[in-house]
Design goal:
This protein is of the alpha/beta class and about 220 residues long. It has one domain: Rossmann fold (3-Layer(aba) Sandwich). About 30% of the residues lie in helices and about 20% in strands. It has an eight-stranded mixed sheet. The protein binds S-adenosylmethionine. S-adenosylmethionine binds next to strand 3 and helix 7.
């Protein structure tokens, strides 16, 4: 996704106490970063402008959230959306961290000790050309990485996309990486298989009349 630079983003992010620019230093110790250390941790990879995570995390104060993106302008917009969403609800941002992370290097940031319960991947870049497919956030190469730090008992990945080829090929990636698809739909808005909180891309595609494909995959030990 192309996005123009936001000159204010760097300063605002630096000043936000829920933003982490160098998340590698917390590898293996994410639980202790949160006030409620015993709450489960859910991670969103590629959070974009943050509409989804801000609504989700402010609704579920009994879950700890980490939202990651690698583009500064996206992180800046996310930061503003998170603040607005929590402020509107008179909530304190104490169950969410926003981090700068390239998913290609996710194992520098999370380890087995972090025991993440759920990963959200929403409308990741489809990378349609065969030579680029391994960059997909749902590619088997990435799924193998996620298995390192997902809760081995019942860790799940919630995935939604507009892209039929990406969806169908991701189903194969999940199966080949030893995940079980526990629920899926080719039309999420007419068959809700999980909480209906929409992302920026989800709104855009559904306004164009494109059905949203979604699945929940669970790790098999
Ligand atoms: C198409 S946008 C979708 C944004 C949002 N999830 C939504 O549904 O509206 C993809 C997002 O993933 C981020 N992204 C792409 N590759 C990434 C990577 N390797 N690591 C982290 N974020 C990535 C992009 O910066 C962008 O914000």
């Amino acid at each position: 996704m192309r996005i123009r630079r936001r000159p204010w983003a760097e300063k605002e992010l630096r000043e936000a106490n829920f933003y982490i620019d160098n998340p590698n230093i917390y590898k293996g110790n994410w639980k202790e970063k949160f006030i409620n250390v015993n709450n489960p941790i859910h991670l969103e990879i590629g959070c974009g402008k943050g509409a989804f995570i801000s609504e989700l995390a402010s609704r579920h104060k009994n879950i700890n959230y980490i939202a990651a993106d690698m583009i500064e302008a996206m992180l800046g917009l996310s930061k503003r959306n998170i603040e607005k969403c929590y402020n509107d609800k008179n909530e304190i941002i104490d169950n969410l961290f926003l981090i700068r992370m390239n998913a290609e290097r996710i194992l520098d940031v999370f380890s087995n000790d972090d025991c993440i319960d759920r990963i959200y991947i929403n409308f990741c870049n489809p990378w349609p050309r065969p030579k680029h497919k391994k960059r997909r956030l749902t590619h088997i190469r990435q799924l193998e990485n996620y298995k390192t730090f997902l809760n081995k008992a019942n860790g799940t990945i919630y995935f939604k996309t507009d892209d039929t080829d990406l969806f169908n090929e991701s189903i194969e990636y999940f199966k080949n990486a030893n995940f079980k698809i526990i629920n899926m739909t080719n039309d999420l808005h007419n068959n809700l298989i999980f909480e209906d909180i929409r992302t920026e891309h989800e709104n855009m595609f559904s306004e164009e009349g494109i059905a949203i494909k979604a699945l929940i995959a669970q790790i098999i030990i």
